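ESCALATION

Customer reports they have been waiting on this structure for their group meeting. Please prioritize. Original submission:
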Amino acid sequence: MAKFFCPYCNPKYQFISKTNTDKLICGLCGEEMVRQSFFNIRQMVSLIIIIAFLLPLFYSFFILIINRKHFKKDIYQGYNIELIGTIKSM
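Update from on-call: job pushed to the front of the queue and completed.
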């Protein structure tokens, strides 16, 4: 069900009344109720801006975690080769 509101009255004290033609009117001032949209233009723009700033941050952390596993393997293999070389030279 869609939400309706009166743009002129305080939202705390609003109540909805119906006319004979099934139009919704405000019980306080008698103005016709306005349908409230689910998504506002401002909300959509702000969501796009937030995603634009946070997506590179999450992407960099994801790449950092992936590269960290490969980096540890390279260090471990190099350490084994150096350790074997020092043992053989003794």
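Sent to customer with the following note: The beta strands are 3-5, 16-18, 24-26, 34-36.
Escalation resolved.
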